[in-house]
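Query structure, 422 tokens:
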């Protein structure tokens, strides 16, 4: 999206992608991966999805759309091109970006560099004692394929958020026997209820019929300051918990640890604060309530044996397969690897609001840290988020880059001096 915005503003840009074709980072994931949020939230800039598309669409449909998008938007897209390093020459004000372009090393010298690798870093696998002795397959959620021959096998899935739910659901559909290990609580919003009670005025068929547009919806949604958003969302989630009380009761009756955020503000705030900690329910919750997906909650992993996982309460679970749905390293970690630990240290935490809730230490920032605005590293920008956020904020990131190209100053309120001077 940022590439498309830059292209339309006449800013020469190269998009680097490690995998061969646009969309490949979706294609290589498990077959049942689909959006959990409705189609109206997910349009790309300039070319909306066709009106016959389903509300929730599968990942390969999206992958093909992205490939088409690159072509018709005439983007300068380098597939099979991994960035191997990036160093900034402060004197010249130019980056030296090294690229492994299909085996050939190429050096690029851009003035501006946008890190758009997602909200998270690399797969995170905890270092459990005994893991090396486990005889069966062990895989992180990011590499889970879903086409393995695991029918009838006991699969221990460590973690209890979106990836863990999706994968337990997928394993169950394939006739495997998943058990989810939940260490601490998870927020669960039911996708269709979220659509009905939260998104409908902005992102729905009804909204379109009443004259709402994607651009207007984005502007209205983004115009609510985050501090206020947190307060405004509480009554909606309180009503949601009430309306769906039987659903939530079935879940907690089997021991599932449920939360609605520390202040009851629900999904969007969890996403902004932590980028994690929730499940947008598309069916796995009922399978947990019914026992089709096994659940061990309020426990961590003590150690791993040759064919078992030992939990912190002493339970030993026989296991043929282990899936680590244990989340991801930080974006700051990716930045450090691409540039240097010094640059990552100078830029500091990325994402989060400084809300002083779990995983989001203060001080209060007001906006997402380091996202879509100048960072403490001249010439460096960080971009990512849900499709909705990327669609909206890509406009402003692209304009700031365009302004640098034209020699215009675009100071940002509250930003460090060094950041606003580039
Ligand atoms: N279809 C879609 O749209 C999908 C979207 N996503 C998105 O990707 C993002 C990341 O989600 P996800 O991959 O689920 O990652 P999360 O970071 O949300 O979840 C990680 C899970 O692993 C647990 N965990 C981590 N370390 C340990 C440990 N040492 N022992 C036990 N448990 C551990 C965490 O427990 P604890 O909370 O106690 O730390 C948590 O339950 C989210 O934004 C999500 O919405 C993911 C999948 C599908
Ligand atoms: O960005 C938003 O609007 C959210 O409420 C969170 C969210 C919507 N769709 C997602 C897909 C992946 C991760 C978070 C979200």
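Result returned for the query:
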């Amino acid at each position: 999206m940022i590439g498309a915005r830059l292209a339309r503003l006449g800013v020469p840009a190269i998009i680097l992608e490690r995998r061969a074709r646009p969309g490949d980072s979706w294609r290589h994931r498990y077959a049942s991966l689909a959006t959990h949020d409705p189609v109206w939230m997910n349009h790309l800039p300039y070319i909306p999805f066709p009106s016959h598309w389903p509300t929730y669409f599968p990942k390969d449909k999206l992958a093909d759309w992205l490939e088409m998008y690159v072509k018709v938007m005439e983007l300068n897209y380098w597939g099979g091109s991994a960035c191997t390093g990036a160093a900034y020459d402060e004197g010249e004000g130019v980056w030296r970006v090294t690229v492994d372009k299909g085996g050939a090393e190429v050096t690029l010298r851009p003035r501006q560099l946008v890190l758009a690798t997602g909200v998270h870093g690399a797969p995170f696998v905890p270092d459990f004692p005994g893991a090396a002795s486990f005889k069966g397959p062990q895989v992180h959620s990011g590499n889970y394929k879903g086409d393995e021959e695991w029918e009838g096998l006991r699969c221990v899935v460590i973690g209890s958020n979106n990836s863990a739910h999706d994968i337990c659901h997928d394993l169950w559909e394939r006739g495997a026997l998943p058990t989810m290990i939940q260490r601490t609580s998870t927020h669960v919003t039911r996708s269709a209820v979220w659509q009905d009670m939260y998104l409908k005025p902005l992102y729905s068929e009804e909204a379109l019929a009443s004259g709402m547009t994607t651009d207007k919806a984005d502007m209205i949604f983004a115009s609510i300051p985050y501090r206020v958003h947190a307060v405004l969302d509480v009554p909606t989630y309180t009503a949601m918990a009430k309306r769906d009380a039987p659903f939530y009761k079935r879940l907690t009756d089997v021991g599932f640890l449920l939360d609605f955020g520390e202040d009851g503000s629900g999904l969007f705030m969890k996403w902004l604060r932590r980028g994690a900690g929730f499940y947008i329910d598309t069916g796995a919750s009922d399978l947990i309530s019914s026992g089709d997906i096994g659940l061990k909650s309020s426990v961590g992993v003590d150690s791993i044996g040759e064919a078992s996982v030992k939990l912190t309460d002493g339970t030993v679970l026989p296991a043929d397969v282990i899936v680590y749905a244990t989340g991801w390293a930080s974006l700051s970690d990716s930045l450090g690897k691409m540039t240097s630990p010094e640059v990552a240290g100078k830029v500091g935490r990325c994402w989060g609001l400084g809300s002083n809730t779990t995983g989001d230490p203060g001080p209060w920032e007001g906006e997402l840290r380091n996202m879509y605005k100048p960072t403490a590293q001249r010439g460096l920008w960080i971009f990512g988020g849900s499709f909705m956020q990327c669609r909206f904020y890509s406009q402003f990131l692209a304009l700031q880059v365009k302004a640098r190209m034209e020699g215009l100053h675009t100071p940002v309120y509250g930003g460090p001096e060094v950041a606003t001077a580039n």
